Amino acid sequence: MNLRGIVSVTGRPGLFKLIGQNKTGFILESLDEKRVKIVVNISTAKMASLEDITIFGTEDDIKLIDIFEKMKGLSSLPDAKKDSGDKLRAFFNEVAPDHDEERVYSSDIKKIINWFVILKGFPLFDEEAPAPLDAEAVGEDKKVEREELAK
Description:
Residues 53-119 form the DUF6852 domain. Residues 3-50 form the DUF5606 domain. The structure is a single chain. The chain is of the alpha+beta class. The protein has a single domain (6-125), classed as Arc Repressor Mutant, subunit A (Orthogonal Bundle), CATH 1.10.10. It has 4 helices and 7 strands. It has helices spanning 64-72, 85-95, 106-119, 135-150, and strands spanning 6-9, 16-21, 25-30, 37-41, 47-49, 54-55, 62-63. The chain has a 5-stranded antiparallel β-sheet with strand order 4-3-2-1-5, with no helix packed on it. It has a two-stranded antiparallel sheet with strand order 6-7. A hairpin with a 3-residue loop joins strand 2 (16-21) and strand 3. The longest helix is centred in the last third of the chain and has 16 residues, at 135-150. It is globular.
């Protein structure tokens, strides 16, 4: 699953794809049907990459990617807008059985379900996540590029 570049912005509904950066902030494109492009100011907005989000667990935190993988295998999802908190909690116990029930609220569960509904129409679930960049290898690549430019 490849969630790199998919972010949530505090105070804005939905999810966004990071498409660039300018002097004042990040350029984002909404993942809904409107595909609205916005610039989010670095100093005033908080963004969270879905790749880095974790959920409170009883022992260790649970990665959002792992929860999405389990949700992907299910045939039906609860309706986050209509179903009761008890039904949402029962569903979440199925996909994340070791989550901390005291610190993971119904609003968090609703948000995760809504994010999954947005993302399930994209090919992200079939893509492999890119390997993390190795700082040493990046430094070697830059050194090679400088040497080639010097010739």
